[in-house]
Amino acid sequence: MRLSVRGDYGTRAVLDLARHYGEGLIQNSDIAVRQAIPEPYLHQILLALRKAGIVRSVRGPRGGHTLARPPEELTLADVMEALEGPIGQDCAEEVSGCAQRDLCAVRTVWQGVDKATKRILSAASIAQLAIGPGGIRPQPMYHI
Length: 144
Description:
Blueprint: H1 5-19, H2 28-35, H3 39-51, E1 55-58, E2 64-67, H4 76-84, H5 107-123, H6 126-131
Antiparallel strand pairs: 1-2
């Protein structure tokens, strides 16, 4: 499995919002600087996250973004599905249109990979990831 730039940037943006949860609205420019994400691309990612109900946005000079739910209620699976679509291989799905589905020697392997991936991503709480390795809240790369 390969993480796209969209998934990487989106995860970083959500973790940034989680680290600032409860502090009010966070502006695009602040997230972009702290996470080294091009601001126009960040805008597109935040729009997708808003449509998925992960981010709440307010327009205007005092506007910005915040998580729509507490970080404890969000998982990495939520973020990945919002940005990348359904998790898993098409051929592992029960409704796969593949003509070789019932004869495929590796289909059960892909089903196992999908199940494990979904389990791991669903267990990865945004709140815990925002704290960082070893229980230490990561320091921002830039001080504003």
